[in-house]
Amino acid sequence: MGAMFFSLPRGVVLKLQEIVGNENVVLEPESYIYDETPPLIRPEASRDVVVVKPGSTEEVSRIMKLANERKIPVFVRGGGTGLSGGVIPTRPGIILSMERMNRIIEIDEQNLMAVCEAGVTLRQLLDAVERIPGLSFPPHPGDEGAQIGGLVANNAGGARAVKYGVMRNYVAGLEVVLPTGEVLNLGGKVIKNATGYDLLHLVIGSEGTLCVITKAVLRLIPEPGATYTLVIPFESAENAIRTVPEILRSGVIPLAMEYMDIGAIRAGERVTGKRWPHSGGKAHLMIIIDGMDEDELIRKAEIIERIAKTHGALDVLVGVGKKEQRDILEIRSLIYEGLKGETIEVLDVSVPPASIAEFVETCQREAERLGIEVLHFGHAGDGNVHQQILRSGMDGEEWMEKYLKFKEFAFGLASRLGGYITGEHGIGSVKKADMLKTLPGESIELMKAIKKVFDPNNILNLGKVVDVE
């Protein structure tokens, strides 16, 4: 076997190889130990780990039984696209990579359901659904390399949540493996279920701390039809953001409604090599509308244009062609990538939509007071604001001090406005201390008690969300 730098007993490694095959036990884990969490704030990963790639639920069950008996920490890894350190192995142990469990089992056209294994990527699922005329899977939380198990475990959101909701709204059933190795089937191809406590929705959003998701039953909906993408520049963030509630009150519920500072747009342009439709203004809205025909799209676009211009919009540009719309969306989607090297952290607070303007304006003033550069963008229609904190012009301990002050300010403000410190990125390891400051102690104690019931030996995704040691 050669030299080993991990502390798992040789007998355990041999047993893992027996369960999944020698080729599916990786002794050089470097490419598996980090996710997309910015390096400046992510926890240090333990390299004293072995990567195990199960190919079936039975193999996951056997691995978990072995780990539980030996009290070996297990860190479940999907596509590694997270931003909160949720899959980083912070202790010696096993990385359970779900990449081989990538089968789409069924597209059930009669019940409007898709059944797939946890390692299926979002792109795989979208391709499979799109091959069935008239069906769609609305959630689109960013990186299409993300795996379904991870999207469920983190209750992923994305730009389309304003109209179609988040991942939780599309999960009808799950197959999961408990830390002790037992297999549970929760929910299924049903719309209603009032049978006892709702364990299904407890697992959704649990960030890999309660069980291993191995299979998902996902709701599909009829294809929404054609789309237009509107780009609306404003001279001020206040005017842009205050347009949003009025559009929602008009009865037009967009497929997506995104807010972006001009600096964020420039970052997206740099990484894509593409040009945004309008170069003026300090703040922009990108609004995607869908409809069954051209008349419906035109009617919705005219309503939005009328409202936007009453709030000082400089222009209203409408993207109709598929390529044009795709280019606009790509610039928005890759803002983070455009400034990845300068980024300290991307916050993603969730506030009531009507409070977005107050939140952004107040945070901008605080950033200026601290002398720190913060780009604002995100899902204006559902109140999920992204704040990309940059290290630009700061060195030594200065960046850390200012970053921590700004983060505490932003989280405190979000809480006072009736919001929460994360809308879709999750707690992981990087927001644990912040969660303790903003949630009632009783809530934290209940979370710890739930964790202990599911995971009595505390082996699953240690160091994430809550500590029970």
TrEMBL record:
- Which cofactors does this protein require? FAD
The name under which this protein is listed is FAD-binding oxidoreductase
Coiled-coil regions, chain positions: none
Q: Mind telling me which PANTHER family this protein's record contains?
A: GLYCOLATE OXIDASE SUBUNIT GLCD
InterPro entries linked to this entry: FAD-bd_oxidored_4_C, FAD-bd_PCMH, FAD-bd_PCMH-like_sf, FAD-bd_PCMH_sub2, FAD-linked_Oxase-like_C, FAD-linked_OxidoTrans_Type4, Oxid_FAD_bind_N, Vanillyl_alc_oxidase_C-sub2
Residue ranges of every copy of the FAD-binding PCMH-type domain listed in the record: 43-223
PROSITE patterns annotated for this entry? FAD_PCMH
Q: List keywords of the entry alphabetically.
A: FAD, Flavoprotein, Oxidoreductase
Q: Which Pfam families match?
A: FAD-oxidase_C, FAD_binding_4
Native source organism of the sequence: Geoglobus acetivorans
